[in-house]
Amino acid sequence: xxxxxxxxxxxxxxxxxxxxxxxxxxxxxxxxxxxxxxxxxxxxxxxxxxxxxxxxxxxxxxxxxxxxxxxxxxxxxxxxxxxxxxxxxxxxxxxxxxxxxxxxxxxxxxxxxxxxxxxxxxxxxxxxxxxxxxxxxxxxxxxxxxxxxxxxxxxxxxxxxxxxxxxxxxxxxxxxxxxxxxxxxxxxxxxxxxxxxxxxxxxxxxxxxxxxxxxxx
Length: 217
What we know:
- The chain has 217 residues and is mainly α.
- It is built from seven helices and no strands.
- Residues 5-10 and 12-25 have low confidence and may be disordered.
């Protein structure tokens, strides 16, 4: 009898769906999802209130309030992105993850514009750099729209949370036509109402149903 033993490593299972495999990287807990969801709702409510009170096109103190409450909203969207990144909501491919990282940059520059527009004196707000930064506001919202579509297709989130980001992240494409066709009043009610239906509700859903975004084991 040959006393030597031969060991063969177990083969990897191929019958497990990619959606059910653990996600590499730092895990996210239900409590963290809840906190980030509430941050999204709080920031959205701040900006929606400003829109209902002052509209989307204004100047002076009202414009500064709109910009600073816009910062609160954008910080809430950063909280949403944190959940999406840590759950790989758009999928595991390089392109899927790159979409989220690009959006971080776009949103960061848009938030910088909001902050500066709310704090800088009037004379500084006409600087070329401010005009360039202003472009990133709509770009960041369009980026969130792309993420909403990719998230729905990927199916990593389940239940209403698979589709609600697509509703929330269509804010830009819903509000701009309202501004063009209905003027400031159209943008006020469509924009503010869409924020409540979309992002504010999305934050509540994350807080109430965090398990719908966690990886299925």
